[in-house]
């Protein structure tokens, strides 16, 4: 019977949520979507796609997630009584937050979408806190200090309510803002409850830890930085959506001369960076890769980086050649992002990274320079005392 098929299809969605493999989830959820298309059951189609959006976002395939979300949003517009608008609006937050990663999406289009999110939140009676936060995050990602400051003030003043991020995510965004405006002491203070595990969620402390590594090195807190790197990299190594966090761990390895560790990170993540349409986070990866190659050349570290065996990519055997390739990849992405953002923010980040070579960074204990296995569950208990 048709009703039995629909009930079973909803059960398949719940089963897929518990699969370990992203590909296995895609296959099963894709079959449910086919069932929804054949039956015309809109709620089934929306639920399967929202589950698939989560899969794609956490696997770093944001373009696919946007495609699925567009379908859900259209159903919400056309059939508001037949679909779960609340779930779709939660997904809208995720999608809206990640648009800045793709330079083909213009600033004007991003602004339209953020205005739409704000209007829909208001129509539902949800808190305006999340829309302000998303605007702040976009401003940080595009290097717009004026807008970041404006949105930060509105975000902090807005009442916490339905639709706002979880406390852990909000605390992480506070860390990110203070680092963006060069208030490192305030950033470390904001990060402390996260490091003490007062705040945790699916993304925190995963993305918070790597934000702090360079600041800790500047303050000569070498042992704490290494402890956070060791546990933090394991948290992000298995997810495609944490490319920026992986890049920060790679930069840490470059600055502290953990070359074998850096070599492992390049080997594990370079192919995804090459293939990713997310030019913002892949920029950060190639920028960190350039830093690793340059520091290895300067310190005469005889390492060979394992790069993807694809046309136009060097073998990784010669560091000078590899450094040129990393810089070319980073420059191409910086140019595309700056053109869309109408500034030189990513070019300046590339230049800042090069200037790090002239600073005195604490060298890690050579015994620490060994590969790390990526564990799905990773515990940490940093002590800042």
Secondary-structure element series: HHHHHHHHHHHHHHHHH
How would you describe the oligomerization state of the chains in this entry?
single chain
Number of helices: 17
Q: Could you tell me the mean pLDDT?
A: 92
Give the total of beta strands: 0
Radius of gyration: 22 Å
Global structural class: mainly alpha
Helix content: 55-70%
> Can you summarize the main beta sheet?
none
How far apart the termini lie comes to: 64 Å
Binned strand content: under 5%
Overall geometric form: globular
Instruction: Give the uncertain stretches in residue-range form.
Output: 375-385
What keyword list fits this structure?
385 residues, globular, disordered C terminus, 69% helix, mainly alpha, 17 helices
Concise overview:
This protein is mostly helical. The chain contains 17 helices and no strands. It has a domain at 206-385.
Question: What does this 3D model show about the protein?
Answer:
By secondary structure, the chain is mainly α. The chain has a domain at 206-385. Helices cover 69% and strands 0% of the residues. The chain is built from 17 helices and no strands. It has helices at residues 2-17, 22-39, 42-58, 62-78, 85-98, 107-124, 129-142, 145-157, 167-180, 184-195, 208-218, 222-236, 243-256, 259-275, 279-298, 319-341, 345-355. Helix 6 (107-124) runs antiparallel to helix 7 (129-142). The longest helix is centred in the last third of the chain and has 23 residues, at 319-341. The chain is globular and about 70 Å long. The termini are far apart.
